Amino acid sequence: MNNNSFDTLIKLHKVEKRLLEINHSRGDLPGKIDVIKNKINDLNNQSQLHNDRLTEIDKRKTLLTHTIQDIESKVSSLNDQMYKVKSNREYEALLSEIDHLNNENLNTIKELEEFDDEVKKIESSLNENNESLELLNNDLSNKDNQLKETNSEFEKEEIELVNEKNSFIENLSEVAESLIHTYNSKKEEYDGLAFSAISRGCCENCYSQLPPQLIIDAKNKEQLVNCPSCNILLYFQEDDSL
Ligand SMILES: [Zn+2]
Questions:
Q1: CA of 204 to the centre of ligand 1 (A)
Q2: Under a CB-based contact definition with an 8 Å cutoff, are residues 197 and 235 in contact?
Q3: pTM for this structure?
Q4: What single-letter DSSP state applies at residue 105?
Q5: CATH of the domain at 125
Q6: What is the distance in A from the centroid of ligand 1 to the CA of 228?
Q7: pLDDT tens for residues 216-238?
Q8: How close is the Cα of 199 to the center of ligand 1, in Å?
Q9: How far is the CA of 196 from the centre of ligand 1 (A)?
Q10: 216 and 142 in one domain?
Q11: CA of 181 to the centre of ligand 1 (A)
Q12: Nearest 5°: phi and psi at 38?
């Protein structure tokens, strides 16, 4: 490894560190926005199911209303026939048919009434959903605006950093593959940062005092140096003193 590739690696590290800082400044807004969007989605799906059920009930109610009208008209015509009966047997038969139809009518009316209860419940649930949706949508638009503000604050810097990062990565392609591999696996191990600066003779990541020889090695930039305590990669800041 030469000094040049080490410097490129450190530059890449610094760019990535700044990008992480920017990302942290967004806080948990993106996560919160996702949670709100999921809730809105769930409520909309629930409302859709409610509305489907209301349509279904409406169709059934129309059918039942027609059935009731049919039964009533049959009963009315049977009642008319009652005046014309000539035998007890005929009378009994008509009476029993009317009874049967009246029972059927009662059942149909009961079914209709049961739907009324269900419709009331669905409508109140739909109202609750709408109220929740209104609150959630307000919350979502507030958080969206906050995120947009944060994004616009850092937008330019972030684009520049990403460009820089890409150009460093291009430069890095000349460096031994194992170096990039070590850098990337360290990044995963240490929440996105492979390196820690040496500050006042200490590792900035774990604050442990470093042996003088290790600091000299880090200054020489001829090999990657790990912190003996926390194992993060170390680099020496030129403007820092021992
Ligand atoms: Zn350390």
A1: 7
A2: yes
A3: 0.64
A4: H
A5: 1.10.287.1490
A6: 7
A7: 999 998 888 999 999 999 999 87
A8: 11
A9: 8
A10: no
A11: 20
A12: -65, -40
